[in-house]
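pinning this so it doesn't scroll away 📌
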Amino acid sequence: MLLEAPPLLEVRDLTTAYQGLVAISGISLDVAEGEIVAVAGANGAGKSTLLKTIAGSERPRSGTVKLDGRNIGGTAGHLITAAGIAYVPENRRLFPRLSVADNLRLGSYLFRGKPDREEPLERVFRLFPRLNERLSQRAETLSGGEQQMLAISRALMTRPRLLMLDEPSQGIAPKLVDEIFDAVIAIRAAGTTVLIVEQRLSEVLAIADRGYVLQTGRVVIQGSAKDILDHTDVRKAYLGV
């Protein structure tokens, strides 16, 4: 009998406090290699804290975070990036006065000195052709949607196995939101697993395989994307139907 492969990301009983208050409490979730997994919930539910804890920006009080079976919980952020997790935070954290090209180059810092350092650029420009047209522009001159494209692209320059996105549609013109979600589908198709926090519940569940709904720092609903979208409580709370 074949044994089921362990998840790429395994979170167990994770608890983290933010500014002295417990922000997430006893959260457990799995992300299998090749999946898109969505995390939803109201403001203050703990979604961003969850991603920050996985990424090493926040230290957990208790619980474990494993990548490919190796415990990375509490590890410094730059080491987690080197291990294969790229995190695009809600505020994007671009270098606003640097050019698009320089922001992308900083994303490939782990590969400095290597001849293939800029190899991911071809993939980035296929995803977001407009970035190739704006290489010399400062990041601060880009639109909100273009800045999000740059933030995602800079993360891809680290060649991650797991890409974590925090509210990628926030502050973006509606006409560019579909482009961002199409890019997420393409990123997964190219072999990168995705964990995404998103307020646009119906849109993100349309592209996700599975999902988790958080409430006051705990997982209250989990399952396939379709099952969550069809869940009575979810439809009432988030879709108004």
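📌 and the second one:
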Amino acid sequence: MSEAHPPARHGVRTPLENTPARAWDPAAPIDAPLCLHHPHVLWDWVDYNGHMSESCYLLVFGDNSDAFFRYIGIDESYRDQDGHSLYTAQTHIHYVKEVAQGEPLRLTLQLLDLDPRRIHLIHCMYHAGSGDLLCTGEQMLVHVDMAKGRAAAMPDFLYARLQTILQAHATLPIPAQVGRPMGIRRST
């Protein structure tokens, strides 16, 4: 095992793992939407059809969530010291266009709603060159007390930061994919 990579306590590792959260500046402008993650499609994300595999879109949205968590002040110390974390309770993915190995991605994140225990957001994945929308991932996150194994209210500092972001995102249009039901449409 490489000395540069100490043994992990788990198998799945994210690009931002063990990266400290940034300091929150209450006077800093908030981008609407947030644009915090810009990966390229990796070789091991590409399937036998020659484009990014469906599961890897969710992997990239998870990495975008990690960037968001660090933006709002959550990192491993929040989990380890405070015993709280954000868990994904639901995800609804809309695949729009294919993307191939090596192509650049630009991820955005828009806060749609929140309450003291939940965050409703949408990730949008764009081709960083063409600007084409590739995929959206609408999610409901739950703030969890890990020791109790159930939802718990966020601390005041975190909830206040999220309310500030929600206010900055309030003027954004709601993407068409938000809240769309799944089903086979029948003509009458």
